[in-house]
Amino acid sequence: MALTALDIFKNLPKTNCKECGVPTCLAFAMQLAGKKVELDKCPHVTQEAKNALESASTPPIKLITIGDGEKKIELGNETVLFRHEETFYHEPGIAVLVSDSLDKADLVEKVKTINSKSYERVGFTLYVNFVALSNDSGDSAAFADAAETAQNNSQLPIILMTDDPASMKAAAEKIKEKKPLLYGITADNIDSMAVVAAEMNLPAVISAPLDDLPELSQKAQDLGAGDLILEPVAGGMSKKLEDLTRLRRAQLKKNLRVVGFPFLVNAVDKDDPYMEINRAACYVAKYASIVIISGMEDWQLLSLLTVRQNIYTDPQKPVQVKPGVWTVGDPGPDSPVLVTTNFSLTYYTVEGEVSSSRVPSYILVIDTEGTSVLTAWAAEKFTVEMIADILNQDGGIKEKVSRRRVIIPGLVAVMTAKLKDESGWDVIVGPREAMGIPKFLKSLAV
User: Fold this and answer.
1) What is 5-57's CATH superfamily?
2) Contact criterion met (CB below 8 Å) for 323 and 346
3) Residue 145: count of CB within 10 angstroms of its CB
4) Model confidence band, residue 7 (pLDDT cutoffs 50, 70, 90)
5) Fold agreement (64-311, 324-445)
6) Per-residue model confidence as pLDDT tens digits over 21-73
């Protein structure tokens, strides 16, 4: 059972020294009970207290690291059921399935293609996280060779998928320095497969029906496999979503340490690529830390990675771009000047439409604390005075253009006259929607 704040407070030094960054020991105890701080923040806690408070100071979901180098990925360590309560911290890894039955040239080509899949969206680079290698050949030597080939041609961590302990050990031996994930522990092979994970100190996946996972998790830990990922396997999508939710509640609400690990879902459906991505998106939304798919078309990956990005963006911190003067193309002194806010989605939507117009332009980005045009205007964060000040700022946009002409969003046309009076610039009302920008800029240039 989870300790209450008062239970924790009884074991603290009660000095109210503030060295932990919290005003009082009681306040620190409350934060510790809420999993918002770690016990190590208290410099005066005794070893006896650490032992007593171990359950309170340990994250409810263990942080698991897979891979090494720049492309390693951390999973787990989440603290809430719902994003709006705080935020989700570690994005789930997306894995694309490949088979060890491919010939070497085809395997290399497919792995390199997976590595190349990256997309720019609102200032961020989205990419796949894993190559999931399946032992379809059933041959231990072929699987080991394929694992080595895949890792040699990939910067991404490898997921080794086989339920045969001998094949898993042979493949893991080839690439263990890169810290792959071993996917293959079941009730039938746990005695030998967990030992492979323990001997190589590698993370491993346990696949079993929900009711069997606690017992198997404890058994794997007793055998020395401490970095685990759990996969509830019974039933279809609705049952999996239910199981993932029940496991998450057990971790956070009941503090059930035996299942305090990230989750994996194998969403592969080669017969229906559309449903595969739809299901994968549902698992991303509901607590899966790794989702395996077979599709690798751009329309599949970009849609899934976009869902992940949206869900794992901190709802209390809008994604923003840096305020200031941005350029599209190679604008000159006669180029148009557009004004927008620093909300990333707003800016990159505008920037994309300006780019498609092929009219070199300046975009003046106003700091609205990451809010959109109408929201910022209603909250008085996108005002005439702010825009006028930036238009006439020394060293700014006024020194880059010869014609003082600015285009404002059509949604705030009401500020036209006042902005002209305040700034001395000619004010042109632009389209209400970004999709109208290309036609508008082309007509303006005529």
Assistant:
1) Electron transport complex subunit B, putative Fe-S cluster (1.10.15.40)
2) no
3) 18
4) confident
5) no
6) 889 999 988 888 776 777 888 988 888 888 777 666 677 899 999 999 999 99
